[in-house]
Amino acid sequence: MKKLFLGIFFITASAQSFAVDNEYALTCFQNDTGSRIYFKIYDSAGWSKMDLIASYATYAVWHRYSYANENRSPYLYMQVDTDLTNNAYYQTFQLTRYARPSKECNGAVDYRFQYENGNTNYLRLSAQ
């Protein structure tokens, strides 16, 4: 009679963390108005850009960290003309950036442009 050796191997898996590293400081805007909004966005490190956000669109501004989960970034500012008539009323806002794993908003909205009290001549920017 032949002997059959049956070997049983146990594999132990070490606990793995499935947390995603935050690579970006991200700010997401939603334009809830029927107007295109022109603005200047800039940061405390000297970066700046003139741009616009189309009506009912989302816009993202990001800073890539030097290393994962750094959670430090230059201060972010936005200057926007909140008077949609022929007059100009520029307001500057200091904005918060949030640590996120990508530079995509993926449904996240940090700030919303809306008409001021339903008046289509004036804008407001509100934090969410």
Kindly list the characteristics that best describe this protein.
128 residues; mainly beta; Immunoglobulin-like; 5-stranded mixed β-sheet; 4-stranded antiparallel β-sheet; 9 strands; 0% helix; 45% strand
Helix content: under 10%
Distance between the termini: 77 Å
Tell me the β content.
over 45%
Described by its quaternary structure, the protein is: single chain
- Structural class assignment: mainly beta
Biggest beta sheet summary: 5 strands, mixed
- Shape assignment: elongated
Uncertain stretches of 5 or more adjacent residues: 4-16
The third-level CATH topology is Immunoglobulin-like
Return the CATH class. Answer: Mainly Beta
Mean pLDDT: 88
What is the number of independent domains?
Answer: 1
What's the gyration radius in Å?
Answer: 24 Å
Total helical segments: 0
CATH architecture: Sandwich
Order of helices and strands: EEEEEEEEE
Number of strands: 9
What can you see in these coordinates?
The protein has 128 residues and is mostly beta strands. It has one domain (24-127): Immunoglobulin-like. Helix content is 0%, strand content 45%. It has strands spanning 24-31, 37-43, 48-53, 58-64, 76-81, 90-95, 98-100, 111-116, 119-127. Strands 1, 4, 7, 8 and 9 form a 5-stranded mixed beta sheet that branches. It has a 4-stranded antiparallel beta sheet with strand order 3-2-5-6, with no helix packed on it. The radius of gyration is 24 Å and the shape is elongated. The relative contact order is 0.27.
